[in-house]
Amino acid sequence: MKPQALDAVILCGGQGTRLREETEFKPKPMVEIGGRPILWHIMRRYHRFGVRRFILCLGYKGEVIRDYFLNYRLRQSDVTVSLRTHEVRVHGEDTAEDWEVVLADTGDETMTGARIKRALAHVRGETFFATYGDGVADIDLDSLLATHERGGRLATVTAVHPSSRYGEIDVAHDAVRTFLEKPQVADGWINGGFFVFARRAFDGSSDDPGLVLESDILPSLAARGQLSAFQHAGFWQCMDTYREMLALNQIWARGNAPWL
Predict the structure, then answer these.
(1) 104-125 tens-digit pLDDT
(2) In the Cβ-directed half-sphere of 219, how many Cα atoms lie within 13 Å?
(3) 225: which DSSP letter?
(4) 91, HSE (Cβ side, Cα atoms, 13 Å)
(5) The pTM is what?
(6) Which positions ≥6 away from 36 have C-beta within 8 Å?
(7) Which of 136, 143, 135 lies closest to 231 in space, CA to CA?
């Protein structure tokens, strides 16, 4: 199986309360890195491995995401608009990405597990990718999918080392030998998103709005021996706070964004 054969489900419905400076007027996946929504950056990573069909689970301020994609080509091009006839003519070469995007309204208050459960109506095939709409990584989707297939389990979660909130100092005899500002910690793994699921992983689960992926679905799969881990030691960063948004934009401005 190759990544290009799979759909990617992206959770886009959370309220992003810890990033209220940006999310008061738009959903967190639409907060920008380098002038583009972080959602676009995530989709670009998948598309790099051939994935071209995306199911976006909309919720909080989902109309902003809906408007972005419905007008995607117009936003990227020069256009002529006839105010009398409402005709729109797009100028120049069509450079829009070759993506098929399903805009699925999964409810304003719906939790993560129920969003994916509801999105299954749009998923083609028995296996699919899934991730959150607020984190970027230099994830190798070929290796992730290969790990899932080797494990033979219903689901695979990407495990990552979180970034430290503080600078790391190596001290010897009262002298600082090295100083690393907010490095990734070497010990401990956390849920980094970037899942692979078999459709059967959600068998028996309702689409009750309170169904939570992280506390209802994943622990149950783990207890049944049906959850594999793909250990990703490379770049990974979520965008939960204003400080993290600034850090991602600084990386982009330096011209070496590792997630693209």
Answers:
(1) 999 999 999 999 999 999 999 9
(2) 5
(3) T
(4) 4
(5) 0.88
(6) none
(7) 143
Domains for the chain: give ranges and CATH numbers. 3-253 (3.90.550.10)
Report the run of H or E that residue 103 belongs to, with start and end. Answer: strand 100-105
Evaluate whether 144 touches 223 at the Cβ level (below 8 Å).
Answer: no
pLDDT score at 247: 93
Are 116 and 218 in contact by the 8 Å Cβ rule? The answer is no
Closest by CA position to 205, among listed 111, 126, 128, 109: 111
3-state SS of the chain: helix, strand, coil percent to 5? Answer: 35, 25, 40
